Predict the 3D structure of the following.
Amino acid sequence: MSTIIIGNFDGVHIGHQGLIRRALDLSPTSDVVAVTFDSHPALQTRGEAPPMLTTNQDRERLLIETGVTRVECLKTTAELLALDPNEFIEFLHSRMNFAAVVEGADFRFGCRRSGDVNTLREIGRRKKFETIVADNVDVALQDGQIVSARSSMVRWLLANGRVADARRMLGRSYSVTGIVVLGQQRGRQLGYPTANFAQLTSVLPSDGVYSVGVEDAQGRHWRAAASIGSNPTFGDCPRTLEVHVLDLPKNTDLYGQSMRISFHEWLRGMMRFDSVDVLVAQIARDCKQVVA
């Protein structure tokens, strides 16, 4: 018999990790199964969903690294979302045997999110499974504010460039993965060549310059400075992610490679400089902050 947790688990933040630890503590010898969805239910119910923090592949990897035995990913269909709370739990019972469900106090499930933890307890009494309500996990942000770990809060922090606070809530640096493509090569002309990224897998933080780490497919790591924005010094350009990799071995070719960019610290906002020389001097200062 398994213990299950149910949710979107986008970002697999420390609140999700707390659910997993509670499930592991409840029954150390039982499987812990994370039941999740192949796309956000809001796509079906509202026609749009919040920007995703993790791909399905990364979400599964992070859940298993945290202690989940396996991930049961449900296909998000209109038929599934139309199930009332009783029907949804019956559907899960038809797929797996479970002795307990561990959820947070704000857990909602079933058609139009009509079920809550009290509903789950009532169904559990009939179906002979235990309902465990785990405590919220609170996070102290850099400004002293105490907030509960939520995927929506991680998105808000990223939208405001607060990647260090996002790291506190995730338990790790926020990262995205992309493919290095040919850019306009302005950085090379300025003496600071950059890797330009396309096919990004997850939402980017707000425009600005960041201290980041990069990792290639071979597992090699480098420190770097990343710029997100439209290069206002050079006019109206598309919003891009450009990364200047420090200490990159000479003649290393990154084009076409898939690389992970992990955001560590916000350095400054995006700005327009009066001259290229002033811009180059600022880039030099940015790189020194990364080294520090």
Observations:
- The chain has two domains: 2-136, 173-291.
- Residues 2-136 form a domain with the Rossmann fold fold (CATH 3.40.50.620).
- The CA atoms of residues 207 and 228 lie 5 Å apart.
- The chain has a mean pLDDT of 92.
